[in-house]
Amino acid sequence: MPLHMTKIAYRSKNLDTLRGWVEQGPEAHMTTRYLPKRHEEMVGGSLYWIMDHAIVARSEIIGFEKREDDGRWTIRLAPRLIRVEPRPKRAHQGWRYLADEDAPRDLPEGEDHGDVLPGKMMNKLIRLGLV
Protein backbone atom coordinates (compact mmCIF):
# COMPACT_ATOMS: atom_id res chain seq x y z
CA MET A 1 0.00 0.00 0.00
CA PRO A 2 1.38 3.41 -0.92
CA LEU A 3 1.83 6.21 1.56
CA HIS A 4 0.06 9.52 0.92
CA MET A 5 0.56 13.12 2.02
CA THR A 6 -1.70 16.08 2.78
CA LYS A 7 -1.03 19.66 1.71
CA ILE A 8 -3.02 22.87 1.91
CA ALA A 9 -4.05 24.24 -1.50
CA TYR A 10 -3.12 27.74 -0.32
CA ARG A 11 -3.05 29.45 -3.72
CA SER A 12 -6.41 28.06 -4.84
CA LYS A 13 -9.64 29.83 -3.99
CA ASN A 14 -11.80 26.85 -4.98
CA LEU A 15 -11.69 23.41 -6.63
CA ASP A 16 -11.97 24.87 -10.14
CA THR A 17 -8.85 27.00 -9.57
CA LEU A 18 -6.98 23.97 -8.23
CA ARG A 19 -8.19 21.80 -11.12
CA GLY A 20 -7.02 24.43 -13.62
CA TRP A 21 -3.53 24.39 -12.12
CA VAL A 22 -3.20 20.60 -11.73
CA GLU A 23 -4.66 19.72 -15.14
CA GLN A 24 -2.91 22.39 -17.23
CA GLY A 25 -0.10 20.27 -18.68
CA PRO A 26 1.42 16.81 -18.98
CA GLU A 27 2.12 16.86 -15.22
CA ALA A 28 1.87 19.30 -12.33
CA HIS A 29 4.89 20.30 -10.23
CA MET A 30 4.87 21.26 -6.58
CA THR A 31 8.02 22.55 -4.85
CA THR A 32 9.11 21.64 -1.33
CA ARG A 33 12.22 22.53 0.62
CA TYR A 34 12.89 19.05 1.99
CA LEU A 35 12.55 15.58 0.51
CA PRO A 36 10.15 13.47 2.60
CA LYS A 37 12.11 10.73 4.40
CA ARG A 38 9.56 8.17 3.21
CA HIS A 39 9.41 9.47 -0.38
CA GLU A 40 10.00 6.05 -1.95
CA GLU A 41 6.79 4.77 -0.32
CA MET A 42 4.88 7.75 -1.68
CA VAL A 43 5.42 7.13 -5.40
CA GLY A 44 2.06 5.80 -6.61
CA GLY A 45 0.35 7.33 -3.59
CA SER A 46 -1.52 10.62 -3.63
CA LEU A 47 -1.22 14.18 -2.47
CA TYR A 48 -4.51 14.99 -0.73
CA TRP A 49 -5.52 18.64 -1.03
CA ILE A 50 -6.92 20.58 1.94
CA MET A 51 -9.25 23.55 1.39
CA ASP A 52 -11.21 25.36 4.12
CA HIS A 53 -10.14 22.84 6.78
CA ALA A 54 -11.30 19.79 4.79
CA ILE A 55 -9.61 17.24 2.51
CA VAL A 56 -11.48 17.64 -0.78
CA ALA A 57 -9.40 16.12 -3.62
CA ARG A 58 -6.25 14.23 -4.48
CA SER A 59 -3.59 14.02 -7.19
CA GLU A 60 -1.41 10.97 -7.82
CA ILE A 61 2.28 11.34 -6.96
CA ILE A 62 4.46 10.35 -9.92
CA GLY A 63 7.83 10.99 -8.31
CA PHE A 64 10.34 13.39 -6.77
CA GLU A 65 13.21 15.28 -8.44
CA LYS A 66 15.90 17.53 -7.00
CA ARG A 67 16.08 20.98 -8.55
CA GLU A 68 19.59 21.97 -9.59
CA ASP A 69 19.13 25.72 -9.28
CA ASP A 70 18.26 25.96 -5.56
CA GLY A 71 18.45 22.44 -4.09
CA ARG A 72 14.72 22.24 -3.44
CA TRP A 73 12.62 19.24 -4.45
CA THR A 74 9.88 18.98 -7.05
CA ILE A 75 6.93 16.70 -6.36
CA ARG A 76 5.69 15.46 -9.74
CA LEU A 77 1.90 14.98 -9.89
CA ALA A 78 -0.35 13.33 -12.45
CA PRO A 79 -2.42 15.96 -14.30
CA ARG A 80 -5.73 14.79 -12.83
CA LEU A 81 -7.64 16.08 -9.82
CA ILE A 82 -9.83 13.41 -8.22
CA ARG A 83 -12.61 14.53 -5.88
CA VAL A 84 -12.81 12.65 -2.59
CA GLU A 85 -15.41 12.41 0.12
CA PRO A 86 -14.84 15.60 2.14
CA ARG A 87 -13.19 14.98 5.48
CA PRO A 88 -12.32 17.55 8.17
CA LYS A 89 -8.60 18.29 8.45
CA ARG A 90 -6.91 20.99 10.47
CA ALA A 91 -4.62 23.40 8.68
CA HIS A 92 -0.88 22.74 8.93
CA GLN A 93 2.33 24.06 7.43
CA GLY A 94 4.13 22.00 4.84
CA TRP A 95 2.91 18.44 4.28
CA ARG A 96 1.94 15.54 6.51
CA TYR A 97 1.94 11.79 5.89
CA LEU A 98 -1.41 10.03 5.48
CA ALA A 99 -1.72 6.25 5.71
CA ASP A 100 -3.78 4.45 3.06
CA GLU A 101 -6.35 3.24 5.62
CA ASP A 102 -6.89 6.85 6.80
CA ALA A 103 -7.38 8.33 3.34
CA PRO A 104 -10.89 9.40 2.30
CA ARG A 105 -12.60 7.45 -0.46
CA ASP A 106 -12.84 8.76 -4.01
CA LEU A 107 -16.21 10.09 -5.06
CA PRO A 108 -17.69 7.89 -7.80
CA GLU A 109 -18.19 9.52 -11.20
CA GLY A 110 -21.35 11.61 -11.10
CA GLU A 111 -21.55 11.69 -7.30
CA ASP A 112 -21.21 15.19 -5.93
CA HIS A 113 -21.38 16.44 -2.41
CA GLY A 114 -22.17 19.93 -3.68
CA ASP A 115 -20.43 22.74 -1.89
CA VAL A 116 -18.09 21.36 0.73
CA LEU A 117 -18.87 22.44 4.27
CA PRO A 118 -15.99 24.25 5.96
CA GLY A 119 -13.99 21.83 8.09
CA LYS A 120 -14.66 23.64 11.38
CA MET A 121 -18.41 23.53 10.79
CA MET A 122 -18.26 19.89 9.71
CA ASN A 123 -16.37 18.98 12.91
CA LYS A 124 -19.07 20.61 15.04
CA LEU A 125 -21.85 18.84 13.13
CA ILE A 126 -20.07 15.48 13.52
CA ARG A 127 -19.71 16.05 17.27
CA LEU A 128 -23.43 16.82 17.46
CA GLY A 129 -24.24 13.62 15.52
CA LEU A 130 -25.81 15.53 12.62
CA VAL A 131 -23.43 14.34 9.91
Description:
Helix content is 16%, strand content 34%. Strands 1, 2, 3, 4, 5, 6 and 7 form a seven-stranded mixed sheet that branches. The chain has a single domain, classed as Archaeosine Trna-guanine Transglycosylase, Chain: A, domain 4. The two termini are 29 Å apart. With 131 residues, the chain is an alpha+beta fold. The longest helix is centred in the C-terminal third of the chain and has 9 residues, at 119-127. The chain has three helices and seven strands, in the order E-H-E-H-E-E-E-E-E-H. The protein is globular, with a radius of gyration of 15 Å. The mean pLDDT is 88.
Which terms would index this structure?
131 residues; Archaeosine Trna-guanine Transglycosylase, Chain: A, domain 4; UCP032025; DUF1489 domain-containing protein
